[in-house]
Write a structure and sequence with these properties.
The complex is a heterodimer. In chain A, 72% of the residues lie in helices and 0% in strands. Chain A is an all-alpha fold. Chain A has a single domain, classed as MetI-like (MetI-like fold), CATH 1.10.3720.10. In chain B, the strands form 5 sheets. Chain B has a 6-stranded mixed β-sheet with strand order 6-7-8-3-9-10, sandwiched between helices. In chain B, helix 2 packs across helix 3, helix 2 packs parallel to helix 4 and helix 3 crosses helix 4. Chain B is elongated. The chains are: A mainly alpha, B alpha+beta. The structure holds adenosine-5'-triphosphate (ATP) and magnesium ion.
């Protein structure tokens, strides 16, 4: 029945159609558009060039590298440098490659991200819904904290950490990452919660829910998108950290970035560019993977801040 | 002293140095449907939030069910609240939205189930129980929000403009449903709105508010026909009451253009001295034409300026005593622009206010 109706109506309208534009406007390729594409492709090539050099160098043996054709694809591909970078490259006296650093980085990143996000979410929630005394002052301090240069506070922090006996320990580096992640993460969560309708909170209070029940049963389930954003920020931030790792982590907890630096800067013998390149790519792999996997989520999470429900 | 369901005594509330409510008194009887009516920003929601315990009052006391709850938590006040924006928990199904308060209170499973299914039956939302709020229409969401107050089995319901996010048709449907709900449950309901139709249709008594002060607290008929001051008279009624300015001398009212209107039939509540500046208010539907005119103390020949057919009746614009005036006639009466006819009204059905104090005379 539907079909006959459609047919009939299209037959009627068909006779009323005149010559000239009809339906969707066709896409045309203008000179401006071609220009934009050319520019974008060139820009992409420019930024990909270093990565290309790194990849091809890491796949060459040392003699081939000494030929200095840095852009050329290797005549003979070898994975030796990758194995060496992972397993046996020397950092000072130890020759265990990046392996231990990788494990340290994973530990620091996972624990540091989890703890800082839990605290920041609670902070943001308390700041936006429970207008306790001094909340505004605390918020002002946090915003200010986001602008303080690290260098200013590092030395006082070293002394403080030594006083409480946590300097150069695993809990020490976790505390440091939590402190420095706090301003931006709290801002993120506070703004997310502040954008929620306040009636939601009022309804929960009339329903008899308290501070923790509202947080865990109502706020946390809604905060998933913003939590994903926070996780991405913290994972890449902590993984890429070099300064705090060098200063606060201590020898046993050296993160991968610090070890990479030690490998690359070891001055004995020949400079093994292929091993250095492989080590660098290995170190960068985690944040790269995070970006590739989570890009979509990241955008969604950022956008979720603007929409309700 | 009879016991009131809700009693508000000398309540004041300030936000910093902004005084929103000042020395407000309100007693609400058991099972009464009270509507708080007023323009935006007059403090209706603030008063409701104070009753609910969501705002700490600056001064005064609140009694619910004879108990002083001024310092109690919202959950201990025996109230349920419905918000304009529904405020459903977005990540929970309708069923879990309804049962949230009961689960938080640690109620037994079968009791929760019993109450949820009863509320769902009353509000006819059984088929929706497993849906999330995003999968509901506005009307269904508001029903769930009402259900959330219903399951708590409270004595006092608080509604904060529950229908203002809905379209006109749904609004009138749900309005009837709320009225039906009240007749069935017989609990006390306090209902905030700025829609006068809702107020007039639902309320046992209406409290008309302005700047945090209750102007008049009466049943809808009195509010409409005997407003206590110019503000209430102008706020209630659509189109607005016609206002003629003039001077009062005993049994005559002399309009600004010299027209004399006999007001001997009007029942004054307070005697007015001769020469008092006054305002005579007449509702559009109290101006009559045709045969009825003969019985009116005041008549005048007028010319029709604008005609607005509203479907059920027709609104006409003209001038009486030199002032623009509207009147309402049956939609079958044919009126044409420029037409001349005689109309009249009885001041007894109107209202007379003192121009200076704006109070009813
Ligand atoms: N948190 C607050 N801080 C300061 N002033 C406030 C706050 N909340 C409300 N007000 C002020 O109190 C007054 C009353 O607000 P309220 O929300 O009670 O108005 P309302 O009558 O409910 O209006 P509407 O019909 O628009 O909902 C307004 O003037 C408002 O600006
Ligand atoms: Mg309001």
């Amino acid at each position: 029945m539907m079909t006959t109706e459609t047919l009939a109506s299209s037959a009627v309208t068909g006779s009323r159609i005149e010559a000239g534009p009809r339906g969707a406007k066709p896409k045309t390729l203008t000179i401006a558009r071609v220009g934009v594409y050319v520019f974008l492709i060139l820009a992409a090539l420019f930024f990909l060039m270093p990565l290309w050099v790194m990849v091809v160098t890491s796949l060459k043996a040392m003699p081939e590298i000494q030929l200095r054709n840095i852009f050329q694809w290797p005549q003979q591909i070898t994975f030796e440098p990758w194995l060496k970078a992972w397993d046996t490259a020397c950092t000072g006296r130890d020759c265990n490659g990046l392996k231990p650093g990788f494990l340290n980085s994973v530990k620091i990143t996972v624990v540091g991200t989890a703890i800082s996000i839990v605290i920041a979410a609670l902070n943001g929630y308390a700041l936006s819904f429970w207008k306790y005394k001094g909340a505004n002052v605390l918020f002002g301090l946090l915003v200010f904290g986001a602008f303080v240069p690290y260098q200013v506070v590092i030395y006082p922090l070293i002394i403080g950490m030594r006083e409480i006996g946590l300097f150069g320990t695993f809990p020490g580096i976790i505390i440091i990452h939590t402190i420095f992640g706090m301003p931006i993460l709290t801002l993120l969560f506070r703004n997310f919660f502040a954008a929620l309708p306040p009636e939601l909170f009022k309804a929960a209070r009339v329903d008899g829910a308290g501070f923790w029940q509202i947080f865990f049963q109502i706020m946390v389930p809604m905060a998933v998108p913003i939590t994903i954003v926070a996780v991405i920020l913290q994972v890449t931030g902590i993984w890429n950290d070099f300064l705090f790792g060098t200063v606060f982590a201590g020898r046993e907890n050296m993160p991968m970035t610090v070890q990479l630096n030690n490998i690359v800067n070891t001055t004995t013998g020949v400079r093994e560019y292929n091993v250095h390149m492989a080590a660098t790519i290995l170190t960068a792999a985690v944040p790269l993977a995070v970006y590739f996997i989570s890009g979509k989520w990241f955008v969604r999470g950022i956008a979720a801040g603007a929409v309700k429900g | 002293m009879t016991q009131h369901s809700v009693s508000i005594r000398d309540l004041s509330l300030n936000f910093g140095n902004v005084k929103v409510l000042e020395h407000l008194d309100l007693d609400i009887a058991q099972g009464e449907f009270i509507v708080l009516l007023g323009p935006s920003g007059c403090g209706k929601s603030t008063l409701l939030n104070c009753i609910a315990g969501l705002l700490d009052v600056s001064d005064g006391q609140i009694f619910i069910g004879g108990k002083n709850v001024t310092w109690e938590e919202p959950k201990d006040r025996g109230i349920g609240m419905v918000f304009q924006s529904y405020a459903l928990y977005p990540q929970m199904t309708v069923e879990r939205n309804l049962s949230f308060g009961l689960r938080v209170a640690g109620m037994k499973k079968d009791e929760i189930e019993r109450r949820v299914s009863r509320a769902a039956e009353i509000l006819q939302i059984q088929p929706l129980l497993q849906r999330k709020p995003v999968e509901l229409s506005g009307g269904q969401r508001q029903r769930v929000a009402i259900g959330r107050a219903l399951v708590r089995d409270v004595d006092v319901f608080l509604f904060d403009e529950p229908l203002s996010n809905l379209d006109a048709k749904l609004r009138s449907d749900l309005r009837v449903e709320i009225k039906r709900l009240h007749q069935r449950l017989k609990n006390t309901m306090i209902y905030v709105t700025h829609d006068q139709i809702e107020a007039l249709t639902l309320a046992d008594r209406i409290a008309v508010m302005k700047n945090g002060v209750i102007q008049q607290l009466s049943d809808p008929h009195t509010i409409y026909n005997k407003p206590v001051n110019l503000y209430v008279a102008g706020f209630i009624g659509s189109p607005q009451m016609n206002m003629l300015h003039g001077t009062l001398n005993g049994d005559t009212f002399t309009a600004e253009d010299g027209t004399v209107i006999p007001v001997g039939t009007y029942e004054f509540t307070t005697p007015a001295a001769a020469g008092t500046k006054a305002v005579l208010g007449v509702r559009p539907e109290h101006i009559v034409l045709g045969d009825d005119v003969k019985r009116m103390p005041f008549t005048q020949e007028i010319e029709i300026e604008i005609v607005e057919p509203m479907g059920s009746d027709t609104l006409a614009w003209t001038k009486i005593a030199g002032k623009a005036v509207t009147f309402r006639v049956d939609s079958d009466v044919h009126l044409a622009v420029g037409q001349k006819l005689v109309v009249g009204f009885d001041p007894a059905r109107g209202s007379i206010f003192n121009s200076e104090t704006t109070n009813r005379l």
